[in-house]
Prior knowledge:
The chain has 293 residues and is α/β, with parallel strands linked by helices. The chain folds into 3 domains: 3-60, CATH 2.40.50.140; 66-216, P-loop containing nucleotide triphosphate hydrolases (Rossmann fold, 3-Layer(aba) Sandwich); 230-287, Orthogonal Bundle (Ribonucleotide Reductase Protein R1, domain 1), CATH 1.10.40. It contains 9 helices and 15 strands. The strands form 4 sheets. Strands 10-9-8-11-15-14 form a 6-stranded mixed sheet, sandwiched between helices. Strands 1-2-3-5-4 form a 5-stranded mixed beta barrel. Helix 2 crosses helix 9. The longest helix is centred in the middle third of the chain and has 16 residues, at 119-134.
Amino acid sequence: MPEGKIIKALSGFYYVLSGNETVQCRGRGVFRKNKVTPLVGDEVVFQAENDKEGYILEVKDRKNELVRPPIANVDQAILVFSAVEPSFSTALLDRFLVLVEFNHIKPIICITKMDLTDDDQNKEIQMYAEEYRKAGYQVLLTSSETEEGIHELLPFLDGVISVFAGQSGVGKSSLLNALRPDLELRTDDISSHLGRGKHTTRHVELMKVGNGLVADTPGFSSLEFIDIEVEELNFCFPDIQHHSEDCKFRGCLHMAEPKCAVKLAVDNQEIPPYRYEHYKTFFQEIKERKPRY
């Protein structure tokens, strides 16, 4: 039986890339019965009715999956955040980073619209970029208008599935258009009434960019820590995890425990205070989460 990768899901059809051909498939009823929903990024076995149509028979095991956006087998996430319009938010970035780290996806931070910053804003973004690099993250500063940083981003896409994720209006589609102009993805300006971007991407689709596959995704409106437990949060902050190895008590949660190396690192400016504040906020959010039955 032929095999391939789902590169688009739309209106009950799954578009499977097999070799150089794309076959439009439907899922067999057994998927609905077993509550398995094929996702973009899935490796599948399918039966071809003819050159262009077929049925998906089997979805292979996934190494990871995301709910919003619905996509599987992601290697890395390009977290796209604008320097301005909308303003750069470390709280929102850290929320994305936690979810990406929890799903064992490599994050790359991409700050866009650098051409729109004034001197003070530029200096502030450069400071944040340096702090996130010290925390262990790859950070790129880009502009779709001037193409600053665009060529630095391309090599990161080689041979992997990347998901472009971030708030609406930060310039994800503009960035993808700069990386591959023939895509001509639709972009909209920021809504002046809402102060946030209008949704321009309606579905998840894998597109060839450079030598890799990239998913442009609908913008996020909420990001909840549905599956993360408080004991796991530590591992989603690499800088906190690094210092936690020196805590006196094994299993230290870095909240009220004595001789906590993480709190000492914050006092010594080795961990930015805002990172630790976000850790505490997320900790409380997870702790107060209503149980699901």
